[in-house]
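One such given next:

>
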Amino acid sequence: MRHEIRFSGFGGQGIILSAVIIGRAAVMYDNKFAVQTQVYGPEARGGASMSQVVIDDEQILYPKVSVPDIFVIMSQEGFEKYGASARESAIMLIDSTLVHSRPKCRCIGIPATREAKQNLKKDIVANIVMLGALVAATHVVSEESLKSAILDSVPKGTGDLNLKAMQLGLELGKQP
Protein backbone atom coordinates (compact mmCIF):
# COMPACT_ATOMS: atom_id res chain seq x y z
CA MET A 1 0.00 0.00 0.00
CA ARG A 2 1.64 3.24 -1.18
CA HIS A 3 1.52 6.25 1.15
CA GLU A 4 2.77 9.68 0.20
CA ILE A 5 3.46 11.76 3.31
CA ARG A 6 4.28 15.47 3.36
CA PHE A 7 5.76 17.08 6.48
CA SER A 8 5.88 20.85 6.76
CA GLY A 9 6.70 23.47 9.36
CA PHE A 10 9.36 26.07 9.92
CA GLY A 11 13.08 25.50 9.86
CA GLY A 12 14.31 24.30 13.24
CA GLN A 13 11.24 22.18 14.09
CA GLY A 14 12.81 18.92 12.95
CA ILE A 15 10.66 18.54 9.84
CA ILE A 16 13.38 16.83 7.83
CA LEU A 17 14.39 14.63 10.78
CA SER A 18 10.75 13.55 11.13
CA ALA A 19 10.65 12.36 7.53
CA VAL A 20 13.99 10.59 7.92
CA ILE A 21 12.75 8.81 11.06
CA ILE A 22 9.49 7.62 9.51
CA GLY A 23 11.33 6.43 6.38
CA ARG A 24 13.91 4.62 8.52
CA ALA A 25 11.14 2.98 10.54
CA ALA A 26 9.52 1.71 7.34
CA VAL A 27 12.70 0.40 5.71
CA MET A 28 14.78 -0.89 8.59
CA TYR A 29 12.10 -2.24 10.91
CA ASP A 30 8.87 -2.83 8.95
CA ASN A 31 10.44 -4.36 5.80
CA LYS A 32 8.88 -1.76 3.52
CA PHE A 33 10.38 0.49 0.87
CA ALA A 34 10.74 4.25 1.36
CA VAL A 35 12.14 7.30 -0.39
CA GLN A 36 12.61 10.65 1.36
CA THR A 37 13.08 14.11 -0.21
CA GLN A 38 13.30 17.58 1.30
CA VAL A 39 12.93 21.24 0.42
CA TYR A 40 14.06 24.24 2.39
CA GLY A 41 14.81 27.71 1.20
CA PRO A 42 17.68 30.06 2.02
CA GLU A 43 15.79 31.21 5.11
CA ALA A 44 16.19 27.68 6.61
CA ARG A 45 15.73 28.33 10.34
CA GLY A 46 12.42 30.10 10.76
CA GLY A 47 11.22 29.83 7.14
CA ALA A 48 8.92 27.16 5.76
CA SER A 49 10.51 23.78 5.25
CA MET A 50 9.04 20.65 3.74
CA SER A 51 10.04 17.03 3.54
CA GLN A 52 8.25 14.13 1.89
CA VAL A 53 8.33 10.37 2.20
CA VAL A 54 6.93 7.68 -0.05
CA ILE A 55 6.34 4.39 1.76
CA ASP A 56 5.25 1.26 -0.09
CA ASP A 57 5.10 -2.51 0.35
CA GLU A 58 6.58 -2.87 -3.14
CA GLN A 59 9.62 -1.34 -4.79
CA ILE A 60 9.17 2.34 -5.48
CA LEU A 61 9.54 3.03 -9.18
CA TYR A 62 8.56 6.70 -9.03
CA PRO A 63 10.14 8.37 -5.98
CA LYS A 64 8.40 11.75 -6.13
CA VAL A 65 5.33 12.59 -4.08
CA SER A 66 2.64 13.54 -6.57
CA VAL A 67 -0.53 13.54 -4.45
CA PRO A 68 0.12 13.28 -0.69
CA ASP A 69 -2.47 11.24 1.17
CA ILE A 70 -1.06 12.11 4.61
CA PHE A 71 0.11 15.52 5.84
CA VAL A 72 1.88 16.49 9.06
CA ILE A 73 1.81 20.29 9.34
CA MET A 74 3.54 22.10 12.18
CA SER A 75 3.28 25.82 11.28
CA GLN A 76 0.77 28.20 9.75
CA GLU A 77 3.18 29.16 6.96
CA GLY A 78 3.81 25.45 6.31
CA PHE A 79 0.06 24.93 5.99
CA GLU A 80 -0.36 27.83 3.59
CA LYS A 81 2.61 26.85 1.44
CA TYR A 82 2.41 23.04 1.47
CA GLY A 83 -0.94 21.91 2.92
CA ALA A 84 -3.75 24.24 1.84
CA SER A 85 -4.30 22.37 -1.43
CA ALA A 86 -4.73 18.94 0.21
CA ARG A 87 -7.29 16.70 -1.47
CA GLU A 88 -10.48 15.99 0.47
CA SER A 89 -9.52 12.30 0.68
CA ALA A 90 -6.27 13.10 2.56
CA ILE A 91 -5.60 12.97 6.29
CA MET A 92 -3.88 15.97 7.87
CA LEU A 93 -2.37 16.11 11.31
CA ILE A 94 -1.75 19.69 12.38
CA ASP A 95 0.04 21.10 15.39
CA SER A 96 -3.03 22.90 16.70
CA THR A 97 -0.80 25.08 18.89
CA LEU A 98 0.66 26.80 15.81
CA VAL A 99 -1.69 26.10 12.87
CA HIS A 100 -4.97 28.01 12.88
CA SER A 101 -6.31 27.18 9.41
CA ARG A 102 -8.24 24.00 8.73
CA PRO A 103 -8.20 21.99 5.49
CA LYS A 104 -11.13 20.50 3.59
CA CYS A 105 -9.79 17.00 4.28
CA ARG A 106 -9.99 15.02 7.51
CA CYS A 107 -8.03 17.06 10.06
CA ILE A 108 -6.61 15.84 13.37
CA GLY A 109 -5.48 18.61 15.70
CA ILE A 110 -2.57 17.65 17.93
CA PRO A 111 -1.36 20.35 20.36
CA ALA A 112 2.19 19.01 20.03
CA THR A 113 4.16 22.15 20.84
CA ARG A 114 2.01 23.03 23.85
CA GLU A 115 2.04 19.48 25.22
CA ALA A 116 5.80 19.06 24.69
CA LYS A 117 6.42 22.31 26.53
CA GLN A 118 3.98 21.60 29.40
CA ASN A 119 4.51 17.87 29.93
CA LEU A 120 8.12 17.37 28.86
CA LYS A 121 9.48 20.90 29.46
CA LYS A 122 11.07 20.84 25.97
CA ASP A 123 9.17 22.10 22.93
CA ILE A 124 12.05 20.88 20.75
CA VAL A 125 10.52 17.37 20.80
CA ALA A 126 7.18 18.52 19.35
CA ASN A 127 8.12 16.83 16.06
CA ILE A 128 8.47 13.50 17.87
CA VAL A 129 5.07 14.06 19.50
CA MET A 130 3.67 14.53 15.99
CA LEU A 131 5.35 11.30 14.80
CA GLY A 132 3.69 9.37 17.62
CA ALA A 133 0.34 10.90 16.71
CA LEU A 134 0.93 10.10 13.03
CA VAL A 135 1.51 6.44 13.79
CA ALA A 136 -1.47 6.25 16.16
CA ALA A 137 -3.80 7.84 13.60
CA THR A 138 -2.59 6.15 10.40
CA HIS A 139 -0.56 3.04 11.32
CA VAL A 140 1.76 3.89 8.42
CA VAL A 141 4.51 2.12 10.39
CA SER A 142 4.36 0.10 13.60
CA GLU A 143 4.88 1.65 17.02
CA GLU A 144 7.88 -0.63 17.63
CA SER A 145 9.55 0.37 14.37
CA LEU A 146 9.00 4.05 15.16
CA LYS A 147 10.55 3.58 18.60
CA SER A 148 13.61 1.87 17.13
CA ALA A 149 14.03 4.48 14.39
CA ILE A 150 13.78 7.32 16.92
CA LEU A 151 16.48 5.76 19.08
CA ASP A 152 18.68 5.33 15.96
CA SER A 153 18.20 8.95 14.91
CA VAL A 154 18.27 11.24 17.94
CA PRO A 155 21.42 12.44 19.72
CA LYS A 156 22.81 10.15 22.39
CA GLY A 157 21.50 11.04 25.83
CA THR A 158 18.11 12.22 24.51
CA GLY A 159 16.55 8.80 23.93
CA ASP A 160 14.38 8.78 27.06
CA LEU A 161 13.02 12.27 26.39
CA ASN A 162 12.24 11.40 22.77
CA LEU A 163 10.52 8.14 23.73
CA LYS A 164 8.37 10.06 26.23
CA ALA A 165 7.51 12.48 23.41
CA MET A 166 6.60 9.58 21.13
CA GLN A 167 4.39 8.05 23.83
CA LEU A 168 2.66 11.39 24.41
CA GLY A 169 1.99 11.61 20.66
CA LEU A 170 0.63 8.06 20.54
CA GLU A 171 -1.84 8.98 23.29
CA LEU A 172 -2.85 12.25 21.62
CA GLY A 173 -3.24 10.55 18.23
CA LYS A 174 -5.55 7.86 19.59
CA GLN A 175 -8.06 10.37 20.92
CA PRO A 176 -11.14 10.81 18.72
In short: The CA atoms of residues 33 and 60 lie 7 Å apart. Residues 3-109+134-154 form a domain with the Pyruvate-ferredoxin Oxidoreductase; domain 3 fold (CATH 3.40.920.10). Strands lie at 3-10, 33-40, 48-56, 70-73, 91-95, 106-110. The longest helix spans residues 159-174.
